[in-house]
Amino acid sequence: MKGLRDATVRCVGGIVHDDQGRLLLIRRANDPGSGQWSLPGGRVEPGESDETAVIRELREETGLDVIPGTLVGTVTRGPYEIHDYACTVSGGVLTPGDDASAARWSDAADLAALEAAGEVVDLLYVTLRDWGVLPWG
């Protein structure tokens, strides 16, 4: 019988702000959270480090090259244990791809409006607020 830990799916996410303080968001094309805005990220593949997974996932979902920094926080959503890292853009062009149907930079007012409209993945706004990483632009 598998234990709870065996059922956990390790995932990573990238918390990326641009020079104006806007936050990078993607609209999820697939479940969980299909159609909702979220941080870019995804599953850590077997044998892959969190750093490698963040770089790969952000490139696949946003077209951007990033340099992962410190771990900002970890959340558990169902079977997914998501480790979110602060990242800095080092290149690329913002283009949605892979599991993202759209990608954009979101300022504080935009993110608040998306949250109020129920278009943001559950608890994202509260989590980012508690971690002190909401957009400031």
UniProtKB/TrEMBL annotation:
Keywords: Hydrolase
Pfam assignment, any one: NUDIX
Transmembrane annotation, as ranges: none
Top-level lineage group: Bacteria
Names of the cofactor(s): Mg(2+)
Domain Nudix hydrolase: 7-128
Stated family: Belongs to the Nudix hydrolase family.
This protein's name: NUDIX domain-containing protein
Lineage of the species this protein comes from: Bacteria, Bacillati, Actinomycetota, Actinomycetes, Pseudonocardiales
